[in-house]
Amino acid sequence: MSRGGRLGVGVIGAGRVGPVLAAAFAGVGHALIGITAGSDPDRVAAILPGVPVLPLEEIVRRSELVILAVPHDELPALVAGVAELGGWQTGQLVMHVDPAYGADVLAPAAARGAIPLAVHPAITFTGTSIDLRQLPGAFAAVTAPPAVLPIAQALAVELGCEPVVIAEADRPAYGEAIAIATDFAASIVRRSAALLRQVGVDEPGRYLAAVLHSATERALTGADD
Length: 225
Description:
Rossmann fold
């Protein structure tokens, strides 16, 4: 990384994304400080065994890299709230993973001297070790002020991803593109599986796997033309 050395990494948000990214960073030698409590402690324990569950304030105080993996609607208030409490630190890396926000949502942290980074790995997270196998070779959208963009790119590379720079003004459109792809795929699978069950197919997911993979490959090939 541009900063060099081993970073203390803390995660705010214990859903599907945060623990996986923490595990990925630990896999390349960074130290895990802790993670905030979440609704699925068993999932966190499975992928981050032994990592302390700490209050948000302690995560921010002790971490050199803070990963914000919270729901879209909660991110602006969270960043502003920590700033109001004087939590963000000069030189601290603050990275969120929301596809639809750029670095501007981190302005309250940047005003306190933190380094704002937006890095979105373009995979569908399951919250399991499967994701750690998906990250290598995936793409990641990175957005940051020009002076610190290399840091965002380096973090994406450390996750195993190929960084693709997305302009701040283009992040909403990027987020919409990701949402369309994931939501449409999920709805199509659910509808197809329901119809297959009606005609007596016991394992519709397995039945559809080859069809969906081949259809997706064909569609993706056409998308690059």
